[in-house]
Design goal:
alpha+beta; two-stranded antiparallel ribbon; 5 helices; 14% strand; globular
């Protein structure tokens, strides 16, 4: 089940960008607003379509670079799904996902799975883990009918 986005207000985004030495641009503010309005896992193309009327000259590379910046700032989480599409999750806090192998639908789940063992094993193997999550692949309710 999808949950409410934790996307920042314009004022909060402005503060984060200033704190990190980044410029506040109209594109960044409008893309952030679009993420807040869409309030679901989205592709860069969906974000572009959402902002096109407000930013008529915005390009897909601008949307991608803004989403990458937002990911670097910890404001969104990028999810790769089996169909190859990249989705951006407006909820960057740790949570897990169900991914439909047929239609690509992604839903949040809160499984409460303890991942400390996976982190410890990764560290023992010389890996420096930053994030872990459970991803369940299968068929969504619509596709399994």
């Amino acid at each position: 089940m999808e949950s409410a986005s934790t996307t920042l207000t314009d004022e909060q985004l402005t503060a984060v960008l200033h704190d990190r030495g980044q410029r506040v641009t109209p594109q960044r503010l409008v893309i952030n607003r679009a993420l807040r309005e869409l309030d679901r896992h989205v592709t860069a193309e969906e974000v572009l379509a959402s902002v096109a009327d407000r930013l008529p000259n915005v390009s897909l590379p601008t949307v991608y670079s803004t989403l990458e910046l937002f990911e670097d700032l910890g404001l969104v989480h990028r999810i790769g799904v089996s169909q190859g599409a990249l989705l951006y999750d407006p909820r960057p806090e740790p949570h897990d996902h169900m991914v439909c192998d047929n239609c690509g639908k992604v839903e949040d789940i809160h499984a409460g799975v303890e991942l400390q063992g996976a982190y410890a094993r990764a560290k023992r193997g010389g890996f420096a883990p930053r994030r872990a999550e459970v991803r369940i692949n299968g068929l969504c309710a619509d596709c399994s009918r």
